[in-house]
Amino acid sequence: EAISKGNHAHFMRKEIFEQPIVVAQTMQSYVRAFEGEVAIPSFEFDLSAVERVTVVACGTSFYAGMVGKYWIERFARVPVDIDVASEFRYRDPVLEPGGLALFISQSGETADTLAALRHAREKEQRIAVVVNVPTSSMAREADLLLPTRAGPEIGVASTKAFTCQLAVLAALATNLARAKGRLTGEEEREIVAHLQEAPEAMSHALNHDADIAAIAPLIAPARDVLYLGRGPDYPMALEGALKLKEISYIHAEGYAAGEMKHGPIALIDDQVPVIVLAPSGPLFEKTVSNMAEVRARGGRIVLISDAAGIAAAGEGCMATIEMPEVHPLIAPLVYAVPVQLLAYHVAVLKGTDVDQPRNLAKSVTVE
Ligand code: G6P
Fold first, then answer.
1. What residues act catalytically?
2. Alpha carbon nearest to ligand 1 atom 5, residue
3. Is 107 in the pocket of ligand 1 (CB under 6 A)?
4. 59 backbone φψ class: left, alpha, beta (φ>0; ψ -120 to 50)
5. Cα separation, 282 vs 362, whole angstroms
6. Distance 119 CA to ligand 1 centre (A)
7. Is any atom of ligand 1 closer than 6 Å to the C-beta of 113?
8. Where is the SIS domain (predicted)?
9. Which atom of ligand 1 is found nearest the CA of 60?
10. Ligand 1 centroid to 363 CA: how many Å?
């Protein structure tokens, strides 16, 4: 059956709007009601002996892995190594036999990631795969198969597969934490409750589509754009920059907000928009002080935050995008939406081929 765009102008837009449904669908395979209680069921795979996790992926899937590293280390207290597949393959990584190697891929066919998986297998790693195409090579070669249920993704720039990967990684982090005895039942229930809030919060984020479209003309003329975030929102800054590059062809860089002073600050002037991802939470104040550094140099800021964050730091910004107030755990799932929509609307304004950007392929099956 041919997949249609429905009433959307592009597949990418359709896929962005599908996210609350496909994330909920993905979550349903990991979060189940047991005897009246909602919990993440244990995988049929013993995670209790895992001492170290090695995450390998490319592109957007790699950024999902970076968020996963924060979660696995925070909840399970297991060290996580992460690398892009093209580097991992050739750097002769130190892999103790019995370690868990985790590969993340929408297609399950990316040549570098697949070769990295086979390398890890040779090094006697146990292979976990987060993958959207259940019939793919990576799915077939997994010891622990963790499917995302995003459905077919047509837009070359990944959107819904990414947020589904995040949902699965949160479930994996929780499972590992439980297997390692690092979570009380109460803590697990809390994590599950927050995860279940994600689809609705993502719907609220989608309601800001028109506001984001109105901000796009402020970004479209720029030659360079900087994205800043901290903690798990740092990979989201990287992903926001990648989305913009991929489909609008504007040069964009994602940076850890605190690292900006070591280089990118030299770029700041009134021509370089700075997109700041700063949900309320333990790192908010730190990011606000980085915003002040930008403002002091005439930088024009688009602040993506919740009502409290915008009330505290929105003054003097070129624009603000209001997200629902969410627990920091699910912020990456929710903040994915505005960065995707912003890239989308800028690309539409620039008249690029949103679903099939130049020089890019949906699945890169060559090295
Ligand atoms: C290509 C696509 C990206 C994707 C990357 C990894 O570059 O254009 O959207 O993130 O490959 O693909 P995978 O299928 O392994 O997630």
1. 362
2. 59
3. yes
4. left
5. 37
6. 20
7. yes
8. 43-182, 215-357
9. 10
10. 6
Which residues in 58-89 are b (16+ Cβ under 10 Å) and which e? bbbbbbbbbbbbbbbeebbebebbbbbbbebb
Closest listed residue to residue 87, CA positions, set 60, 57, 107, 63:
57
Q: Within its chain, how far is the Cα of 10 from the centroid? A: 21
Q: What is the value of ipTM here, to two decimals?
A: 0.98
Residue type, 75: F
Name the nearest CA neighbour of 240 among 231, 250, 256, 227: 227
Question: Taking Cα atoms as reference points, which of 65, 12, 49, 16 lies closest to residue 352?
Answer: 12
Q: List pLDDT tens digits, range 305-364.
A: 999 999 999 999 999 999 999 999 999 999 999 999 999 999 999 999 999 999 998 989
Q: Is 304 near ligand 1, meaning CB less than 6 Å away?
A: no
Q: What is the full DSSP assignment across 238-260?
A: HHHHHHHHHHH--EEEEEEGGGG
DSSP track, 261-306: GGTGGGG-STTSEEEEE--SSTTHHHHHHHHHHHHHTT-EEEEEEE
What is the rounded distance in angstroms from the CA atom of residue 277 to the CA atom of residue 229? 5
- What is the CA(161)–ligand 1 centre distance, in A? 10
Atom of ligand 1 nearest to the CA of 58: 6
- Which pLDDT tens digit goes with each residue over 214-235? 999 999 999 999 999 999 999 9
Nearest to 120 by CA among 86, 147, 95, 142: 95
Q: If you measure from the C-alpha of residue 57 to the centroid of ligand 1, how many angstroms do you get, rounded to a whole number?
A: 9
**231's tokens:** 């903690």
SS3 category, 7: coil
Nearest CA to ligand 1 atom 7: 59
**Is the distance from the beta carbon of residue 264 to the nearest atom of ligand 1 less than 6 Å?**
no
Of ligand 1's atoms, which has the minimum distance to the CA of residue 157? 9
Q: How many helices (H) and strands (E) does the chain have?
A: 13, 12
